[in-house]
Amino acid sequence: KVDELGALNLLTERRILKASRTEIQAGKVCSLNWAMHKPAPTPFGRKGLKHKIKRWPGPKPIIDDEIASNTQSSSQWDGFRHFGHPSGLFYNRLPESEIVDSQGNGLSLSFDKPQRNGIHAEALEACARAQNVEFEMGDILFIRMGYVDWYENASEKERVDVLLRTYPAKLVGIRQDLAEVEWFWNHHFAAVAADSPSFEVHPRMQEWDLHEYLLSLWGTPIGELFDLEDLAKTCKTLGRYSFFVTSSPLHVINGIASPPK
């Protein structure tokens, strides 16, 4: 049987039940979806949101809307078919896969001042210790790098300068080094996500990308451009950085990526 879930297989029924029993305490809900028209301009020249409001003909006031968007232009999960291995193969040596609904235990690491040369494994460990975060196999890791906060407080000129006029765009993210590859592998996360456009630092620091390991080799979904601001504030207020998370990507056969929902 061809495996289509990758690291999501770690989200077992027992794991989900445990997370629901231990993590749902305060009743606070934090949406991780950024507005679909953000950021603008979109990184890497992708097409942004097109929203059309359409009124039905006839006497009754009935209105629909039509949405067209590149699934990589705002908050998204990268599916296994988004980024392949240099060999030309995607996860499980197959050209197609899909993301399914996921629920599980989420952990948040929040950086106020990320390193200019990329966030490295030692910084991730130090942040986890400072926030009393203990990792378990099958956790979903969210890393607040400060990108959404920068965007929301930047002027339009600053946004354009960073996203369009600077080439290649300089974006915060995880450092590309074998130490980071080993760190992520050893923790066996079911999925990872951040508020940055590419999860890993850009321009890249090596001839390879972390996407190659996470997506095409390990089958670990990558979330990008998540709005983690409310979550970070809530975690700080409650003094706990673990929580129950649910995400239901679009059910599109052979889809490449999806809003996290």
Rg measurement, Å: 19 Å
How many domains? 1
CATH class: Alpha Beta
Report the CATH superfamily.
Putative cyclase
Q: Span between N and C termini?
A: 29 Å
Quaternary state reads: single chain
For the largest sheet, list the strands in their spatial order: 8-4-5-6-7-3-9
SS field, number of helical segments:
7
Outline the biggest β-sheet.
Answer: 7 strands, mixed
User: SSE order, as H and E?
Assistant: HEEEEHEHHHEHEHEE
Question: What is the global morphology?
Answer: globular
Q: Beta-sheet strand percentage?
A: 15-25%
Low-confidence stretches are 96-100
Named CATH topology: Glucose Oxidase, domain 1
Q: Which whole number gives the mean pLDDT? A: 89
Give the class from helix and strand content and strand pairing: alpha/beta
**Fraction in helix:** 25-40%
**Annotation, overall tally of beta strands:** 9
